[in-house]
Write a structure and sequence with these properties.
Layout lengths: L2 H25 L16 E6 L26 H11 L1 E7 L6 H9 L7 E6 L8 H8 L5 E6 L11 H13 L2 E4 L6 H10 L4 E4 L14 H11 L4 E5 L2 H4 L9 H15 L4 E3 L12 H12 L9 H20 L5
Parallel strand pairs: 1-2, 2-3, 3-4, 4-5, 5-6, 6-7, 7-8
Amino acid sequence: MDLTKIHSIFGYSLLLLASVFSFSSCCTQAPQFPNEESTDPLEIIDTHIHLYDTNRSQGVDWPSVEDKVLYRPVLAEHFDEVADREGIASTVIVEASSRVEDNQWMLDLVKDNPGRYLALVGNLPIGTDEFAGLIDRFSKDSRFVGLRMRDRPGGDAFFTDAVWRDLAVLEEKGLTLDVLINNFSIDEVTEVAKRLPDLKIMINHLGGLNITHDPFDEKWKEAMERAAVYENVYCKVSGIFQRAGVKPTPKEKSFYSPVFDVVLDAFGEDRIVYGSNWPVTDRGGSYSEQFSIIRSYFNPPVMRLKDSTRGELIAKKLFRENAIRFYGLQSL
């Protein structure tokens, strides 16, 4: 074979090889999250994390020392590692301690990083004589954006005149109310929303449903739909591993999708908000695993919407815009 033919064959082979690698590169890229490669990337807000320090001299009232997963120092530097790795721009802390002064401890803990730690949803004794003075004190800090109803002193007799008085104070001050459904019912949230229409209320953790492989209780769906009638009620797409009622905790999107469907249909794109419930996520898996499930449902390429542009808009609202509006973060 002459030299000219050898050069020709060699050149053709290089072109063919280059085209194969080029095709492989362009066609096997992972789907990109909305705006991931744009000049204006989506800055995700995680609206539900907990911080605490088990090494403090007074200890903590949550989690318990028997909790082998969570009983450890969980501080800003630990969440920073998670946030940097997962691409989380900022967060809202939810106070899990029932001690009044732990609200101030938390505000002081993150005061030097306001860009990441945007706000605190506090915990104060609603329905008590000291509530008015405490809410005046803490609300002077613009980062103190509201309260969470977590505990239920009094049991069935919780909703006293004093409780309604203090919830009205939250409404008057433009503060928010998160509700942990473990100790409260969705219908009670609906009653609060009806009586206090200007109080912004956030149902935590998908309405507290125990998710299994069996069809979910239609009464839960109906209760969520009744609550969603009120425009001041939002739902947090959070704590999905915590809500899983089977072990090991499922990591497939299909396990959670029917619940996501109900939440999105009931509350619409403007009243759903992302939160992780980290570090409680560690009980069921990693932050990344839970985040990927939520992201894979709400991402445009795989949403049950034909219009991918519409899906991208919903993702922006879920992961950022609705949180800003609900918690009033634009003023911080």
